[in-house]
Design goal:
With 383 residues, this protein is of the alpha/beta class. It contains nine helices and 18 strands. The longest helix is centred in the last third of the chain and has 20 residues.
Length: 383
Amino acid sequence: MTRRTIRIAMNGVTGRMGYRQHLVRSILALREQGGLDLGNGEVLWPEPVLVGRREHALRALAEKHGLTEWSTDLDAVLADDSIDVYFDAQVTSARADALTKAIEAGKHLYTEKPTAADFAGALDLARLAAAKGVKHGVVQDKLFLPGLLKLKRLIDGGFFGEILSIRGEFGYWVFEGDWQEAQRPSWNYRSQDGGGIVVDMFPHWEYVLHELFGRVTSVSAEIATHVPRRWDEQGKPYEATADDAAYGTFHLEGGAIAQINSSWTVRVHRDELVEFQVDGTEGSAVAGLRNCRVQHRSLTPKPVWNPDIPATYSFRDQWQKVPDNADFDNGFKAQWELFLRHVVLDEPYHWDLLAGARGVQLAELGLKSAAEGRRLDVPEVTL
């Protein structure tokens, strides 16, 4: 087979997500398997160029993984004609400027979300990329989780009949940082730094709902900062100015209603950190990160309300597990493969900057709904 090299500038790989999921579990994993088989006698070989602000951290990463190219000069990297793709996993506040530079430099781009700090900026990016003719993709990793892939299989197979409602629970307790180290960076809890669970999670819920069930047509949300005081990475206390919990109701095209709770101040009493229950006229399912369980109409028990006697059966035991029926790769890597095939083979790909703009729009309207105490329509997004 012929090896074809694609050079990828990877900005933000010193952060947890950029390093673990995108560099190690995706790009380096592709190299470990010998490259991406394009199916035409060619193997695509990704060559990462690490980009960031901390020289010592970049050097350490490069040495650890046997990489030779890294830089703290983004402008110089983007001016390099040999760079094919720009990837961004920086903090949200730095992303839009870097993406704009990459588009202006004619680079194809792949980026984490949110793509910009506000909807207008996110839509501007999508329009600029379209005008410049570069290919672009936005990470929508949850669509590639085994649990949601099984759920999509059920939807495509007509298991549910008419889908009536979706209920989602996401979250876990993030330690305040005083007596135990926090599991998330402190900027997540400062609105002035682009933090907040609505900004972080509503873009996820937008694409999950849009792709599986239908476009979101309206949103109503309540938000809270349940833990107002936290401690940063240096052990210093700070005021948490961003929302750490959000309770959203989403009306969908087609009539289904989704309710999703998102919280960094909840202790987990469920099988997985995120779960979606889907109820339809013919059956129901509960899908998490990896697993999916179902209860068909024909097997639905007939509960009777009687608070005077204890339950003698387990409701959970009345559900059946959906089999894997496939090998599921890392979701981030799977989407990287699709995007790279889009870049080099021009295969179809629709998880783009316009899709990313829809996520930012929903987050923005969710915050506005909470501030104004009313349900808001979500206009359809077009270029």
